[in-house]
Each structure stands twice: as C-alpha cells, then as structure tokens.
Amino acid sequence: MRLAFDDYLDALQLAGSGLQVAAGAAGLEAQVPTCAEWDVAELVAHQGMVHRWAAANLRGEREPDTEESLAQARTAPDLLAWFAAGLEALTDTLRTTSDDAEAVVFLADAPVPRWFWARRQAHETTIHGVDAVSAVLARRPSASDVTIPAAVAVDGIDELLCGFVPRRSGRLRADEPFTVAVRATDTGDAWSMRISADPVVTTPTDTVHPDAVLSGTAVQLYLGLWNRSDEIRAEGRADVLDLWRTQVRVRWS
User: DSSP assignment, residue 39?
Assistant: First the structure.
C-alpha cells in the first residue's frame, strides 16, 4: 500500500463526487462505452450497492443483501441522492472502524480489513467514475479526460498487479513463461510480472531484460490496465496487450 489512510478516504470522496457529477451530466439513460452492458443508472446502482455492501461487511454483517440494495436503487426517487447517502455511510464506517476489526478481504496481498476496504473502494469508485466520464463523452476516455492524481494511479496499479492479478483464480497464464515490465514514465515506478502456467508472480521493482514492456504515464497505465483506455505503449512481445485484455477481467460476483 502506497498511500496514507486519509489519502484513500480523500480519493474515495473525490471519485464519488466525480461519478455523481458525470452521471448527472450524461443522464441516467446514457450508455456506458467502457461497460457496454450498462447504462448510467445501472452503473450508479452497482457502485452504490457495492458501497453499502462494503460498509455492512466492515460493520460485521456477514451476509449483506445486495439484491435489496439494487431494489432500493431501482425505486429511489433520486438515484444520485441515494448514491451519495451510501458513499457518506461508507466513508463514516471506514473512519470509525478499528484496525483490528474482522471482515472479508480477498486479494493476494490484503492488509487489515479497514485499510483493505478503504483502498479497494477508493479504486473501484475511481474506475467507475471513469466509466461515468465515458458516458458523458460517448467514447473511451483518455488520461487527459479525467482528474486522477498520479499517486492514486500508482497505488491503483500496485493493487491490480500485486493484489488481483496473482490470485489463483486469475486467468493470466502462458504455456511458455515470460516476463513483463510495467513502467510509469512520469513517476519512475515499475513492476515486474512473471507469467507462466502458474499464478502470476509480481514484484514491485523493474527487471533488466523483460520479454515485454508496458509503459505510459501513471494515469495512462492505470486506465489502460483496467481496460478503460488505449494509451499504453507496448514493446517486445506483440501479443502482450491482447493477452492482457482478454485474460485480465475483474468482475463483481
């Protein structure tokens, strides 16, 4: 983890506010180019449901009712106000939860639950805020279309590469092992992934002779690795981006 706890809360609030503004500008019936199966109303309902689920999980409710949250979203007289209430409740819960509280976590390098969910919801909300921007633009956004601090982007890349991708359930595999360096050109941060028939092994350092290199600014990498934008520069193996886009998919389940 690369940010302070309050930085995650600030990122969560900034992203949530941005999602609301973009959703209002696009209109609830607008399609979401980066999540083709959703319109804006479904995007907002999903993120509001996840905020409520995460808060309930931190409060010790072992089986939060996601269907009830989605039903509330469908009948809410003001969907954006419903979303804002859930965001506020999540933020309050994160502030008041103790560091030794027990709750569900699921990533390979997961910290204690309070920190895990502050980080996870900061990034989930940031990425879904990008989805709302795509609805306003009616296209996939570029890094210049969004307002994401480089430090937040670097932390989000780290969560994805060190937390999501190495999970045993991850699909990124190759019969012949190879290495990929991921390099943020503006911050100097780098990661190395070893891809094989086994789960990916990621180290938060550069590698000298990788088989492929993915590079861009921190925000370009953040959006591109989350399959929201197309500004990553790929060198080396010609198929590395195609492998990423077809095998790295993070979904709610």
Answer: B
